[in-house]
Amino acid sequence: MASPARALAEGLNLGLARPVPALAGGPGAWRLLHVDAALVRPGRPVPPDAPVTEEGPFDAVVLALPAPQAAPLLAGPAAELAAVLDGVRLAPSWTLR
What we know:
Blueprint: H1 3-8, E1 22-24, E2 30-34, E3 53-58, H2 67-74, H3 79-86
Antiparallel strand pairs: 1-2, 2-3
Helix pairs in contact: 2-3
């Protein structure tokens, strides 16, 4: 799922491995609220008391994640997009070798 975003980001200065519990702003002025990855255990939710850093504004944000995970990020700043994503139903898939 991340391959298209990785291709689009080639040559850009990116900060990776930062859990993003929230987005703010909107088109042309997005702000990312993120947590230091060292404070979050893989596969676990972001601790509610973890300090949040805000960066931005950014012209655009690429959400390279499944709709059920993207919808809550958009619920505040882009409720109409979140509503569209709430209607997406994913089917399970298997990869066999």
